[in-house]
Amino acid sequence: MKFPGQRKSKHYFPVKNRDPLLAQMTQQPQRFPTYITGIDQTLVDIEAKVGDELLERYALPKGNSTLIDDEKAHALYSELKTNKLVSDEFAGGTIGNTVHNYSILADDRSVLFGVMSNNIEVGSYAYRYLCNTSSKVDLNYLQPVDGPIGRCFTLISECGERTFAISKGAMDKLTPEYIDKDIVQGASALILTAYLMRASDGDQITDAALKAIEYAKEAEVPVVLTLGTRFLIEEDPSWWKSFIKDNVTILAMNEDEGEALTGFSDPLLASEAALELCDLVLTTAGPLGLYMAGYTEDSEKRETSHTLLPGMIPEFNRYEFSRPKLKAACDTPIKVYAHISPYMGGPEKIRNTNGAGDGALAALLHDLASNTFHKANVPGSSKHKRDGLCYSSFSQVCKYANRVAYEVLAQHSPRLSRGLPEREDSLEEAYWER
Ligand SMILES: Nc1ncnc2c1ncn2[C@@H]1O[C@H](COP(=O)(O)OP(=O)(O)OP(=O)(O)O)[C@@H](O)[C@H]1O
Ligand SMILES: Nc1nc2c(ncn2[C@@H]2O[C@H](CO)[C@@H](O)[C@H]2O)c(=O)[nH]1
Predict the structure, then answer these.
(1) Which residues lie closer than 8 Å to 77 by C-beta, 6 or more apart?
(2) Kind of pairing, strands 150-156 and 43-49?
(3) Rounded CA gap, 37 and 369, in Å?
(4) Which of 39, 40, 43 to mutate to test the pocket of ligand 2 (most atoms within 8 A of CB)?
(5) Can you give the pLDDT at residue 386?
(6) 411 C-alpha to center of ligand 2: Å?
(7) Which interval of the chain is the signal sequence (predicted)?
(8) Whose CA is nearest to atom 8 of ligand 2?
(9) Distance of CA 179 to the CA centre of its chain
(10) For the purposes of burial, counting CB atoms within 10 Å of the CB of 324, is it exposed (0-12), middle (13-18) or buried (19 or more)?
(11) pLDDT at residue 349 tops 90
């Protein structure tokens, strides 16, 4: 496990400052392995820049992720290829992206549940998926299926908006028997997407996800849900609210999905409302940056040294130096909020916004898994006297998530090809010498 490390301003990450008592021990305890698990629809993204006219012709609502039948997929693919509109083909899937990015950042293991074609030809989509996935993502638990994996036409409009058209292939064929109970229960977190809840035609991926949730809850493994697209949530916000309340520990969403869920267009108010349903919320808001909302114990709250920010909740970031906790782990829970503007104002040239939110979530998961790792390997640390959900403060996790999102924006693929630089070029030497 590589630790998230030092970021742009001072923080209390005691990477080098081991607990003074434990430091006396020359013999380190045996390393305890840490990993996260995720379930996804195995998908390859086929990216193309298109005009709105094409979206209308194929009846694809702008910004949505729509399932399309084989006939439409064939016509769309032929049209994109004939007109040489396909710019890139990458492994995708919102959870596949997230666990891949986690493994790149942590330089550590994650386990992906999903399907994979039984027969794979060199150059096929299944082949590409495997080639574009980090070797630290454990693919040994994938369910073999007859037929191709899914294709996600990622259609980018002039204005930068992305519209997904999904040709599902066998991506929803995952069955509950392929969810390994021990693996789920031994993980630091289980990561799911709202898309898993829309299986149809007898496909069982929804049941597989529910089974995994049952296992995770039994072992108190945090369940993390990312909302996918506002269209899915808008269909039945009350159903999603009770689903989240019953099952989810950490919720990740963008501001549109937040509005669909809570009715609040303001991302801070949406985060606050979502916090009534779960323990921790990460809300990305495009060029506005990102917000976190969560709980901490009143007696452990830590006041920020940053400027207090105005917003729908005045001075909402006052306790952003606190560490997130499960609400149930607090005697007197208080709500804590944090915000950060895009790292360095955003990259000079945004190559692709696809996956920036997935990247931000991967950073949060890295911090969370670092906490499990630290707790297991340095159990006597004062840090773990009271159970925290993350290793770092709200403020620090925001910085990290924001930095990772920036990296995704500055490259073409939604998946990181390498970790973050150990030292940021933008920071003066003196910062690193402290
Ligand atoms: N135009 C932009 N300028 C600067 N930063 C941006 C911009 N768009 C996104 N970001 C950064 O990327 C983060 C995530 O972006 P966004 O809110 O678009 O995610 P998303 O819609 O969930 O993405 P996806 O679903 O593709 O993963 C933001 O919180 C911000 O830090
Ligand atoms: N699992 C899953 N991912 C999707 C779906 N639609 C779009 N995405 C992914 O969302 C990612 C961006 O967050 C892209 O890389 C897409 O592959 C879907 O229906 N299911």
Answers:
(1) 46, 151, 153
(2) parallel
(3) 11
(4) 43
(5) 66
(6) 18
(7) none
(8) 93
(9) 20
(10) buried
(11) no
Consult the annotation and say whether 99 binds a ligand: no
Q: Tokens representing 81?
A: 């290829």
Distance between CA atoms of 388 and 296, rounded to whole angstroms? Answer: 9
Token reading at 6: 């030092």
Residue pLDDT, tens place only, 324-336: 999 999 999 999 9
pLDDT at site 249: 98
For ligand 1, mutation pick of 283, 353, 408 (most atoms within 8 Å of CB): 353
Distance 352 CA to ligand 2 centre (A): 14
Supply the pTM of this predicted model.
0.92
Is position 266 annotated in a ligand binding site? Answer: no
CA distance 351 to 433: 33
Tokens of 27: 């013999």
> How far apart are the CA of 198 and the centre of ligand 2, in A?
13
CB 395 within 8 A of CB 338: yes
Helix ranges (H only) for 157-289 are 181-185, 205-218, 230-234, 237-247, 255-262, 267-274
Output the six-digit token pair for 430: 């003196």
Give 10's pLDDT tier (boundaries 50, 70, 90): very low
Which residue, by CA, sits nearest to atom 10 of ligand 2?
94
Domains and CATH numbers, the chain: 93-148+169-423 (3.40.1190.20)
Please state the atom number of ligand 1 nearest to the C-alpha of residue 255. 17
CB 275 within 8 A of CB 335: yes
Which of 284, 398, 415 is the pocket-test mutation for ligand 1 (most atoms within 8 Å of CB)?
284
In this structure, which residue's CA is closest to atom 15 in ligand 1? 286
3-state secondary structure 404-428: HHHHHHCCCCCCCCCCCCCCCCCCC
Quick: pLDDT tens for 103-135.
999 999 999 999 999 999 999 999 999 999 999
